[in-house]
Every structure is written in structure tokens, then in C-alpha cells.
Amino acid sequence: MTAGSREKQVTDGVLSQFVLHLHPKRVPEETLRFTLSFGLGGISLTLLVLLGISGAMQLMSYEPTVQHAHDSVRAMYGDSNISGWFRNIHYWSSNLLIVSMGLHLLRVLCTDALTGGRRLNWVVGTFMLLLVLLICFTGYLLPWSQLSYWAVTIFINMAGYIPVVGEVLTAPFRTGGTAVEVGQGTLSTFFVLHTGWLPLTLSALVLLHIWLIRKAGGLVTKDAESRNRRVAVKPALIVREAAVGLVATALIFLLASFFDAPAGEPAMVGVSPNPVKAAWYFMGVQEMLIHFHPVFAVCVFPALTCIAFISLPFWQQRLESPGTWFGGRRGRKLALVAAIGGAFAATILVAYDAIGGLDGNGTEVPAMALVSRGWFSLVLLGVGLGAGFLLLTRKKHYLKGEVILAAWMAVFAWMVTLTITGIWFRGPGMQLLFPS
Ligand code: HEM
Per CATH, is 14-273 categorized as 1.20.810.10? Predict the structure, then answer.
């Protein structure tokens, strides 16, 4: 045996031992079914690895100063510079990670994989979600383009609406010389957070996440009988995971080779584009600002949703058949109706405000708006949810778990509709427009 092949054998051994250590020795056969998870956790993991590698490669060209950041990004696309390709990989992986992670948490929720021994993992997952959003957000500023500069400015101004602490929380990020400006201090802080602290924390949580899956004995299953029907992880699961990882990597490589990440114009402090839009994954919240009082749009509603979301495993009721999407046909139908209802309610709200809103011409007195666009909506939502829950569980005999799940589907559909409206149907002055 040559020295080279011996070295390869040792490396392969270490790698496969590491991969095997992340799994239990045997997993329930039922969990190999692709339609249980659609490989979404594995896809998210692959995208995270690609993000780490492509981010490190860009550090060789990027300069985190307001004078040179934008030029250094543009220079990545110069002749014989491969950094541009890595930038494209980074761009596509980060955007698709938000989509795959969102779908992954939906699948966990819809297959009832968050109760019992998986409660802690849901909480860990929620923190991972927040960290990924923070990483994407801090990275958004780094190209120092008009788009990124103003999107971050908008977000920081939105956070400033949080009562009492908003100003204090956002002050460290307004370092451009005036009270509202984003500047060199903001860029340096975002750079350190984006390339250091946040990815480090996320990596630790990812390891914990995977260890907790292992501790739970693999993915969720229908019942004790299917839990006992087990197969060896190698090769059954490993081959499937490798296939999902390779397909995701190939897709990202293809996208990165044919579609460049936008570099845009360099940031112009004081000259804002019209409209100024937040990053697409925050467009739902920006759209809420158009329809609700700012304190409710950026503070009360998001805070209540976060609390309800993170504590969900502690009050969600089990579905009749865990590991089956929506617990079965009845649950699926109810969830579909709820999702259509959520999307419909958001569309009505957008249309209603486009034709004048509560007072007929869209100019409400701020104090009135706090009641009409804040408290009133909150009470209406509370009463609607309570009445719907009682009607469906008492009169229609749905399981409590099915109704709670359906309510979440309505919330998701509501947010997706507002996000789509914000991205594609808002023009100058955030007026409602049809894309031309
Ligand atoms: C960077 C983001 C994430 C990565 C890389 C990741 C990775 C994974 C992987 C590889 C699995 C096992 C395979 C699969 O279910 O597809 C899994 C399962 C799980 N994930 Fe995630 N995840 C992420 C985010 C989240 C989020 C945001 C949540 C919830 C808020 C979550 C909750 C869970 C739970 C509860 C399980 C166990 C599911 C079961 O036992 O059936 N994860 N995750």
C-alpha cells in the first residue's frame, strides 16, 4: 500500500467516524421515507457548510471599510478572480437557506415532531432561526451598496419603534455622524458579528441540534411498533443524506455559475432610493408597518408571535398520528382552509388600505391609529382565535392539536402574502402597484 492511499484511508476513516457519530447506530426504517422530511434539515446543513466555505474564501478580497467595501466587492468579478464565484455561492446559499429552513420548521410542525422528547430541540431550532436571520441581516450591509445601506437603515429605524428600549438598542448602530445614520462603526460591528460571533454560536447550536436528534433516537415515527422496526444507519441513511447534500451543492454551483449576486450602486448617504425596501425576508414586517400602528407592527405582534412560537411544544397537543403530515386527511383539509383564510385576510387588508383605509383617505390621527390599528386588531384577533378554537373543537370535534396547527398555517399564509405584496407589488412611496 502506498503512503498516499494509506493517508486517504485514515482521512476517510476519521470522516466516516465523525459522520457516524452524529447518528444513532440504527434508525426506524419508516424515517427513511423521503416524504417525511424531504431532506430539508440536510439541505439546510449543506447550505450552512457552503456558506462557511464561500464566506472564508471571500475574506481574501473583501475590505470592511466604508471607503473600499463596495469597490472590493466589485473587484471580485475582475478577470482571473475566483472570489466572484464564491460570492455568488454565498448569495444563493444564504437566500435558499432561509427558504429551506422555513420549510424545515414547517415540516417539523406539520408532522408533530416537536412534542415529547423533541421539545428542547424545537427551542434550539428557534434560536438557530433567529441567528440565521441575524447572520443574513449583518451580511446584507457588507457590500455597502445603495440597496444594502438603505435596507439596513430602514430596519434599524423600524427597531427604533420598540417602546422604551428601541432608541438605546439601536444607538450603537447609528454611527454615521448624525443621529439616524449608519456608518463605519456599524459596518465594523456587523463585519465582526457576521464573520465571527454569530457563525460560532450557530455552529455550537447546530451540533447540539444534531446531538438532540440522535438522543431522540432519530426522526419522529407513527407509533411504538414502527419505532422498533430499525435498520443500520450505514448505508441506508448515509447514502440518502449524501445524495441530498450533493444535489443541493450541484444546484448552488449551477446558480452561482449562471447568475451573479447583485452588487448594485455604491451607498450614497443622504440620497435614498424610492421605495426603500428591507431585505426580502423582513418585507412581511415592513408591510405590517403600512397597515398597523408601528408599536404593534414591529413590537407587539412580532413579540407575541415569537413567544407563542418558541413555547409551542409546551402547549401544542399531540396529533392523532405523529409522523403523518397534519396528522391525517381531516387535519390536512382544516390546515388548507386555514391557510387560504390567512392569505385571503391579508389580501383584503392590503386592498382595503389601498382604497383609503379606516377613515376613507388614509390619514388617521396617530392617537386614533394606536387604538384602531393596534388594540382593536389585537382584540379582534384574540376573539376570532378563541371563537374559532371553541367552534372547531366543541362543535366540529377536531382535535385541539389539529386546530392549533391550522391556526399556525393561517399565520404563515398571512405573512407569506404580506411578504409577496411587499416584494413585488409596492412601487415608489410604497404605493400598491402591479409589476410591469
Ligand atoms: C440552520 C438551520 C437548521 C439546520 C441545519 C437543521 C438541521 C436538521 C436536521 C439535519 C434534522 C434531521 C433531518 C430532517 O429533519 O430533515 C433536523 C431535525 C429537526 N429540526 Fe432542524 N435544522 C435547522 C433549523 C431548525 C429550526 C428553525 C427548527 C424549529 C424551530 C428545527 C427543529 C427541528 C426538530 C424538532 C427536529 C427533529 C425532527 C424529528 O425528530 O422528526 N430545526 N434539523
Answer: yes
Residues having CB within 6 Å of any atom of ligand 1:
37, 39-42, 44-45, 48, 101, 104-105, 108, 113-114, 118, 121-122, 125-126, 128-129, 132, 206, 209, 213, 216, 219-220
Position 10 pLDDT exceeds 60 = no
- Kindly report the protein residue whose alpha carbon is nearest to atom 9 of ligand 1: 41
CA dihedral of 248, 254, 256, 258, whole degrees rounded to 10 = -160
Domain with CATH 1.20.810.10 in the chain: 14-273
Residue 212 has pLDDT above 80, yes or no: yes
- List, for residues 83-134, the tens digit of each pLDDT value: 999 999 999 999 999 999 999 999 999 999 998 889 999 999 999 999 999 9
C-alpha cell at 27: 434508525
Compute the distance from residue 121 Cα to the ligand 1 centre, in Å: 8
How crowded is residue 339: how many other Cβ atoms within 10 Å of its Cβ?
Answer: 20
* Torsion, Cα of 130, 132, 136, 139 (10° steps): 110
- d(CA 107, ligand 1 centre) in Å: 9
Q: How far is the CA of 118 from the centre of ligand 1 (A)?
A: 10
Residue with the three cell numbers 471571500:
58
Tell me the pLDDT band of 360, cut-offs 50, 70 and 90: very low
Mean pLDDT score of the chain: 89
370: CB partners within 8 A, 6+ apart: 293, 295
